[in-house]
Amino acid sequence: MSTPEYRIADDDSGLRLDSFLALQDDLGLSRSYISTLIRNGHVRVDGEAHVKPSTHLRSHQNVVVYIPDPEPIDLVAEDIPLDIVYEDAHLIVVDKHAGLVVHPTPSTRRGTLVNALLYHCSDTLSGISGDLRPGIVHRLDKDTTGLIMVAKDDETHRHLSAQLAARTVKRRYVALCWGAPEPLQGRINGPIGRDPSNRQKMTVIDSGRRAATNYRVLKRYTIASFIECRLETGRTHQIRVHMSVKKNCPIISDTKYGGMSPTGVPSTRENRELVADAIRLAGHHMLHAETLGFVHPVTGEELEFHSAPPIEFRLVQKKLDSVSSGKE
Q: What angle do CA 48, 50, 54 make, to 5 degrees?
């Protein structure tokens, strides 16, 4: 068990306990895991263990974090094919396909990326994220395709997490969305949190966590756009929520955030047929993690990887192109 210790400076007075710890680069833990540690009594403020994630800190207080040793992983290693872009003794970069869940949940313990990694990497995965998420530094939604990095040891995990927290990891996504955002290039700033009316969804809400997405339209079609998005933050469903809620341009074929029946598309027979054809060709929401760049935690080398969108993107784009150019 490691026990990092912090003395609260005047500049940090007033911060929430979970926010303060999430800002500590040497800790390199996700905010959700920090909250779990606090609720389980593994964080003490001036010796007091009965604190909450929302506890506001005061100058000169002493904070000690008791990080438990990784628990044994009670998961099944499965021989699931992986598209490995890069691998060394410390980390691995995978090009994830649609439909692959990143990590198990209490109700889904088979068929995930983690199950595949346990088979491929044996026991060389970091344990910082807990027994259901070994090695997982960041996540992609089940139907989001593209690049994801995985840590093989705890030190690498901490360094990669610190880069994410410092917003120095390069993450570029491409997407096909309905309509065209106005302006055609800009920054979406809107805090994201759980939707009070539907706990299975996220939304832009004042009580949410800060979220910012930079976007640019790469190509316009009659009723859709091909866009790129660069993340400043990494909230759950961030691009999908920002494009749908803030721009009324949901990702094509996004079943959760309006991509199946877009309200911003004029309801003509031709448009309804085009929407139905695009959704059929897509098969999943059209969001792809195309670029991933970071500094190697051990060698210091600047690494950058690129992944072309899967064929479904090209099929949908071809369909949209044929209508835009009047070929049908």
A: 105
pTM exceeding 0.85: no
Catalytic annotation present for 18: no
What's domain 171-289+311-324's architecture? Answer: 2-Layer Sandwich (3.30)
Point out the catalytic residue in the list 18, 141, 154, 254. 141
pLDDT single digits (tens) 130-156: 555 567 888 899 999 999 999 988 889
Three-class SS of 27-78: CCCCHHHHHHHHHCCCEEECCECCCCCCCECCCCCEEEECECCCCCCCCCCC
- pLDDT, one tens digit per residue, over 269-308 is 999 999 999 999 999 999 999 999 999 999 999 999 999 9
| Ranges of each domain in the chain | 5-65, 84-166, 171-289+311-324
Residue that has been written with the tokens 């007075």 in this structure: 13
